[in-house]
Amino acid sequence: MRVHLGSDHAGLDLKDHLMTWLVDHGYEPVDHGPFVYDALDDYPCFCLRAAEAVAGDRAEGLDSLGVVIGGSGNGEQISANKVEGIRCALAWSEETAALAREHNDANVVSVGGRMHSLEDMTRFVEVFLTTPFSDDERHVRRISQVTTYDETKELPPLPESALRGPDA
Q: Are 64 and 3 in contact (CB under 8 A)?
């Protein structure tokens, strides 16, 4: 599986570590930068490229996922989610990494390089990469609602329970 990586200066050490870890575990990593430490670099430059590469691979039917890394992971997640076809989840535990794949079929994970140890973040990425999507009907339905909104900007219909009001 191909894994596209992008970060900023705060995620550079983890990204460099993951490049080696991914090769050692049979993955094909693709580094979208940065390649040197620059405290003034901007994460969108690198994270958008990593996310676009994942979207491009998947559009061609290739099996690929992405990892974006910053200080907190928040801005990197927001950037990746701007790319059409990308569902990027912020992982701060093994459980959130697994649920991102199982329930949301996320194709990019974001982690905060200043939030956890190198070992913990590596484990979050490992869990993300090895957890399959559940294909549960409710999760497929929910992802479809978000995808449809992305395409049409039409809100999904409210469920019957929401139409009755709080006093029902």
A: yes
Containing 65, the helix (H) or strand (E) segment is: strand 64-70
- Give the SS3 label for residue 42: coil
Q: Which two tokens stand for residue 141?
A: 């339905």
Catalytic residue among 17, 25, 102, 103: 103
- Does position 167 have pLDDT exceeding 80, yes or no? no
pLDDT at 155: 96
- pTM, full prediction: 0.94
Our answer to whether residue 103 is catalytic in this structure is yes
Residue 115 token pair: 């939030």
Of these residues, 76, 116, 151, 154, which one is catalytic? 76
User: Could you confirm whether 116 is annotated as catalytic?
Assistant: no
